[in-house]
């Protein structure tokens, strides 16, 4: 498996299959193509699949669509319908379950603010259930939400904060939202990953903390993430590949040299670029220049999807 950073299971599978015409043992893949979006479901079923994919066992649902960056109502509703449908399958039909939504990330850094911004737009109802002493409601479910910040702000491990909160309010499930990292620029801000395998806060920028998963929290954890950044070394490697392809097409001389460069193993090329970038900054990631508007739009899409799935009475 190539040592290239990605939080997306679909990309981990692609990297394994690039030079092989076989599927990964212990991994089940199903894809559904729609006119407006593509849904890929990857299930890591055993230790063999976990070892090859370098991902925890569980289901990973990837939704890809250009409409994720569109801020008009029709585009949003299309994606919200798809995301809420996938969430409904994971949530099940029982409406009276208690949900704790955790918005992971640093609200002071735009590309890492997806979790907190989504939480700020999500309909919370736990205080209403407590005030009116209700156990269930036909239109609403009991929802609490928190953005715990990051260790650099609070001095507390995010996992410790979430664990304490779970032990105190005893939800039936936790939904964690975070920004992720992709290995392909074309997937940045155009992909949603929903996973039953939990999540590691800070993974998107390579600052991995203790995982939030069912084993640690003792309740099911559904992780929702959008890749908002791409590793600089990965991006540079892809740009070099595109440049070489262009030179091969345009050049009448020197094709042998360009082909030799193209045959350089991707992992070796990535390692070389990474070493060259390290003197400037050891943790370089890249995000689009209009990330402010994109994060606002994505947070609306995710909060609408959660509201629709968790509160059946909401139109």
Automatic annotation (TrEMBL):
Propeptide, chain numbering: 1-7
Pfam families: Peptidase_A25 (PF03418)
GO molecular function, one term: hydrolase activity
EC numbers: 3.4.24.78
Protein name, entry field: Germination protease
Catalyzed chemical reaction(s): Endopeptidase action with P4 Glu or Asp, P1 preferably Glu > Asp, P1' hydrophobic and P2' Ala
PTM: Autoproteolytically processed. The inactive tetrameric zymogen termed p46 autoprocesses to a smaller form termed p41, which is active only during spore germination.
Alphabetical UniProt keywords: Hydrolase, Protease, Pyruvate, Zymogen
Similarity annotation: Belongs to the peptidase A25 family.
Oligomeric and partner information: Homotetramer.
The UniProt record lists the keyword Protease: yes
SUPFAM superfamilies in the record: HybD-like
Matches recorded under InterPro entries: Pept_HybD-like_dom_sf, Peptidase_A25
Gene: gpr
Functional note: Initiates the rapid degradation of small, acid-soluble proteins during spore germination.
């Amino acid at each position: 498996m190539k040592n290239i950073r990605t939080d997306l299971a679909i990309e981990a599978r692609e990297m394994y299959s690039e030079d092989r015409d076989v599927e990964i043992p212990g991994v089940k893949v199903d894809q559904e193509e729609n006119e407006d979006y593509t849904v890929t479901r990857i299930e890591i079923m055993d230790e063999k699949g976990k070892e090859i994919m370098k991902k925890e066992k569980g289901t990973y649902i990837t939704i890809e669509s250009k409409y994720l960056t569109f801020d008009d109502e029709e585009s949003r509703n299309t994606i919200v319908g798809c995301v809420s449908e996938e969430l409904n399958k994971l949530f099940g039909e029982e409406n009276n379950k208690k949900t704790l939504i955790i918005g992971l990330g640093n609200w002071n850094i735009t590309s890492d603010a997806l979790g907190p911004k989504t939480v700020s737009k999500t309909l919370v109802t736990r205080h209403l259930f407590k005030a009116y002493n209700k156990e269930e409601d036909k239109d609403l479910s009991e929802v609490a939400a928190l953005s715990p910040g990051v260790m650099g702000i609070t001095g507390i491990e995010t996992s410790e904060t979430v664990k304490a909160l779970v032990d105190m309010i005893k939800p039936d499930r936790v939904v964690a939202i975070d920004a992720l990292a992709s290995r392909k620029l074309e997937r940045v801000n155009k992909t949603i990953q929903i996973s039953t395998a939990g999540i590691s806060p800070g993974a998107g920028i390579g600052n991995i903390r203790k995982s939030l998963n069912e084993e640690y929290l003792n309740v099911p954890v559904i992780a929702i993430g959008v890749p908002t950044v791409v590793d600089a070394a990965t991006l540079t490697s892809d740009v070099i590949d595109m440049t070489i392809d262009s030179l091969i097409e345009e050049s009448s001389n020197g094709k042998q040299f360009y082909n030799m460069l193209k045959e350089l193993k991707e992992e070796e090329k990535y390692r070389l670029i990474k070493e060259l970038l390290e003197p400037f900054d050891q943790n370089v990631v890249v995000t689009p220049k209009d990330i402010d508007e994109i994060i606002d739009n994505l947070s609306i899409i995710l909060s609408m999807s959660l509201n629709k799935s968790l509160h059946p009475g909401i139109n």
